[in-house]
Amino acid sequence: MLVGLLSDTHGLLRTEVLAAFAGVDLILHAGDVGNLAILQSLSALAPTQAVYGNVDPRNGPLAAAIELQLESVRVHVSHGHETGSPTPATLAVRYDADVIVFGHTHRAVIQQVGSTQVINPGAAGPARFRLEPSVALLTLPAREARIVSL
Fold this sequence. Notes:
Number of strands: 10
Number of helices: 3
Order of helices and strands: EHEHEEEHEEEEE
Distance between the termini: 22 Å
């Protein structure tokens, strides 16, 4: 199973995201969507689930967190802002999952913390903080992840 991971679109869906996600089986958005039309566009590629981030309304259609079992792998998705300044270590302590996907920091990272793989796909929306926009691809059940620069 190939899963497309993204976060921090902040209302901008780059055409490069659509190209990077060609052929994915599922898309998970880790918050700061910015405009629900983005999720509709992503849903044209593959089933899409999203959580809210600190710029999204908490009382809208997005969940605070998503817990999934995919190919026998337990996956947790949240924006990360609920921990203050999220790091792979703090998220691995807080959430019991095989794979944790988060956003908020705009910094792409794939880090193993004990038996937990923690992934921030980076920010897919407007370039900020001198960081290159990116997404991630996750292959399950192998738990092989890679960052894709946009």
